[in-house]
Design goal:
Helix content: 25-40%
Shape: elongated
Distance between the termini: 51 Å
Strand order of the largest sheet: 4-3-5-12-6
Low-confidence stretches: none
Number of strands: 12
Amino acid sequence: MNLHQIDLNLLLLFDALYRYRSVSIAANEIFLSQSAFSHGLSRLRKRLADELFIRINNVMEPTPLAHELATHITPALAQLYNGLNSSAVFDPAISDLELTFSATDYTQFSLLPKLISHISKVAPNIRITVTPSEDKVPTAKLLSGELDFVLGFSHEIEKSSTIERQTWLQDSYCTIARKNHPQLTDGLTLDKFLSLSHVRVSPWGEKQGIVDRQLAKQGLNRHVALQLPSVMAAPYTIENSDYLLTFPRLIAEHVAKMIDIDIYTPPIPIPDYQLNLYWHKLNNSKASHQWLSQLISQL
């Protein structure tokens, strides 16, 4: 099919519906009435000879063809948008831009207090929206524009053809136990580490964390008595139990000021972790993204 055979405005309609799965929300984004949107969708269906979206449980679910088309249409529209806006002046002092982030509780704690303190002074009208992190790097949402940035972590340098990254912090792990733990009077040995029960933090429900993987390299394993999605909540389960928790030293030193815990060096080697800012490479030229990246580097 040649491009002149299709109304390119219908591609904006398609992209909005693919992202939101709702006619009313998609119509509102592209400033159409629901009836006009439905008429446009009907035209697109006829032109492509496919239903494209089928209503299931009040959600407009894409057909296989729609999924295939989205892999081409969404990045193409993003490139057009960036091209049209690349020369636009971005002044953070007067901008009322909304920036959307996905983050875990720990990455929020590690970056946002300092970042927001600065933004509130130099860019008071910019709005920040943070949503729970549902995946380590939700590439599809970065590509679609639903998210501008992801705050995440890694244990190694990642290379991606689509995702850019910037490290803002590197830190080590430590193991904590309640103050005066009766089995740790002589320190934390490997035997004690393996004999005691553990708390594991798994933001996305993983059944193995970095500690488990390091133990497995030595043919060892531990007993995990409690698994939690929250790094920030985890240390508070330690104060009144005999469990151990291995997690970021930055948090341990923070909570040690508030609860009675002892901090130990883990008896196994664990690689340092990095906290990263992720964004889609299609947005490299956006002035707002460049500004935020530079701001985090300065801070």
